[in-house]
Amino acid sequence: MKKFENNIFESTATIEYEDSGLKGILTNKGFLLLFQKAANAHSAYINFSFNDLIENDLSWIILNWRLQVFHRPIRESKVTIKTWISFYNHIYTLREYEMYDENNNLCAIAESKFCLFDLTRGRIAKLPENIGTMYGTIDKKVFNNDDLPRLPDPTTYPIFSDKYKIRRFDLDANMHVHNLNYLNFAYELLPESIFYGPEFNNVEIFFKHEIKLGQTIHSFLYNDPDHKNGYIICIKNEDETITHSNIKLYN
Asked: Which CATH architecture has domain 2-135?
């Protein structure tokens, strides 16, 4: 089911096996994937999706994600996702998300920052002047914030690090590492007891520089000084001169 009323796009989804992890409940990556699918469906509904943009060598890319989970739906259950645009300028849009379970309980909220990318020139492109008319906007934020911030590099010493060479299955249609695969890289650095334990209920991802096929990334794990038992993951290039992404995981 899909509908677009009062500038809110609403769709339903079923929690699939691949989204539910070892415990049979929706994972953080699963939440973000379903939210991203809802955003894509919203854009397709108004004829401004990836398939529409690629004809002009344009594509949507994500600059930030923020997720907060309250309740995790189980495998094979159905959820309802609501998404809308809360802000836009000539460079980016802020998109809000809510997910509800079959009993209309709020499962999670999220926010993302999108911009257009010129595939020919390899840089961010201006949004069309009528973007607000196309999507409509709602002055409603799921978080008490004006924007999604840049996450700075940690200034303390890392507790673990690892290197990884990018492979073809890490890439998306833009031939860059898919935004949700950054979360995979982050989770690979976690201690085994944390990795197999309860999921973190808060995720923040800031994307700074793209990662391409054949590049080697050097990822670093830090304790988060702002959140007890939380972590920060900084993903850099092999010689540590470029930061690709910073990720926060906490409760």
From this structure: Roll (3.10)
